[in-house]
Amino acid sequence: MKKSTIWYLTIIMALTFMGLLYVQIMYMNNMKKMRDDQFAEGVKRSLYAVTTRLEQDETKHFLEEDMASMETRFYPRTNSDGSVDINNKFTSSEGINYDLTLKMNVDRRNGGNRQSMRELMHGKYIYQKGLLDEVILSIINQSSNRPITERADSAEVSRYLRSELDNNGLSLPFEFAVANRVGAIVYRSAGYHPSLHDDSGMFVQTLFPNDPKNKMYYLKVYFPTKSDYIFDSIRFMIPSFIFTFILLVTFVCTIILAFRQKKLTEMKNDFINNMTHEFKTPISTISLAAQMLNDNAVLKSPAMLGHISTVINDETKRLRFQVEKVLQMSMFDRQKSTLRLQDVDANVLIANITTTFKLKVEKYGGHIETILGAREATVNVDEMHFTNVIFNLLDNAVKYRREEVPLQLIVETKNVKAHSQERFQVTVSDNGQGIRREDLKKIFEKFYRVSTGNRHDVKGFGLGLAYVKKMVGELGGEISVESEFNTGTKFIITLPITKN
């Protein structure tokens, strides 16, 4: 798959996920707004019903008082002579008070006058009905003079609120208070704290709206758990967000794996190209030497035969070494390597390695310096693999030298403190091309080479440093690198010391 195709798929999927998240968020916002509106509407209906019930209670209170007064005034009182007095007090539309007393004789032995009494009471009822408007006006004028704590008892208000809210399906706790027109609290519930409440969540209803404006009182209600109530109603949306998030994570992981696979494919292609070139040279040399052996003149010259034999042997070793490096990395990927560990003097081993490598360094006009400063140098390693590790580092220094500057190689050993223990450290420093900062984290990856593609100015498969890191880890050590481009590179290997 082309890299551009992966990018196109990534953009399309990213836009799709963004659209899906946008739709879900908008749906949740609309759902929350709808629930808020439904909640507010239910609370307003409940508060209106509470004020209506309080007005009905007050009207009932005044009517009961008026009925008691009427019973006292209109119930006939019997005198000693058998007559009855009927008193009537009323106020005319002009505001004049009248007191009317009627005296009647009643024969107890016959019910003749009972019909007259019944007719009198009926007439009084008709008269009283005619004065109903004036009575209602009187109730309204007198009611505003009563204390608000009597007109709207806190216990009754709380009971009415609970009842009406339950009727509207709002079974959640609430706090309330009654305040006058300037905001002063007359009484409140125990959990009502105005300073902690959000004004947007406060619901206000006028109590007794027919009262004069200067005597107005207001019922304020707040719901501490409103947010939880609204959230519970839209909680069913959470699983959809979780599934979307899982899909998003899966998509991101898939894209990352696709890019890594693409990168690995490119690295393997580079590896194949480099391997082909690396194998082509020794094969061509061996083939040429074999052709020379068919020449009779060469066969008659012992010196030439010896030279051709040496070339074939060297190129065969070179070819075998490249094959072994590939096989070693393949083995390390599958299982833990089998090492022949033994205690060796690292100072002596490194001295032998640098002595052998000295000829190759001087061939390119360079110089190698060995500083054996470690007092304790006994380490438990596989001698062959440890030798290959140092050889690989030295070989890289020669490969990545700068043509305009004579190569300077320094191999130094010393003892250092690490993890509260004394350890052996070997440092390989050079003044070569150096490594760019962006490449430092990748140089130990398999197949990775700073120079990639079909460039063959520096030979190799990109396996050397991967092999070095793998082997140092197998030997219980650590490796790090310090480098500056166009200045040089320093590899630092730290190994545990074996104390006899």
What does this structure look like?
The chain has 500 residues and is an alpha+beta fold. It contains 13 helices and 14 strands. A 5-stranded mixed sheet has the order 9-11-12-14-13. The protein has a 4-stranded antiparallel sheet with strand order 5-4-7-6, with helices on one face. Helix 10 runs parallel beside helix 11 (383-399). It is rod-shaped. The protein starts with a helix and ends with a strand.
Order of helices and strands: HEEEHHHHEEEEHHHHEHEEHEEHHEE
Number of helical elements: 13
The strand line-up of the biggest sheet is 9-11-12-14-13
**Coarse morphology:** rod-shaped
Spatial gap, N to C terminus: 58 Å
Mean of the pLDDT scores? 78
Broad structural category? alpha+beta
Main sheet specs: 5 strands, mixed
- In the predicted model, the low-confidence regions spanning at least 5 consecutive residues are 452-456
Percentage beta strand = 15-25%
Radius of gyration: 53 Å
Strand tally is 14
* Helix content range: 40-55%
Task: For the structure shown, list the relevant keywords.
alpha+beta; rod-shaped; 500 residues; five-stranded mixed β-sheet
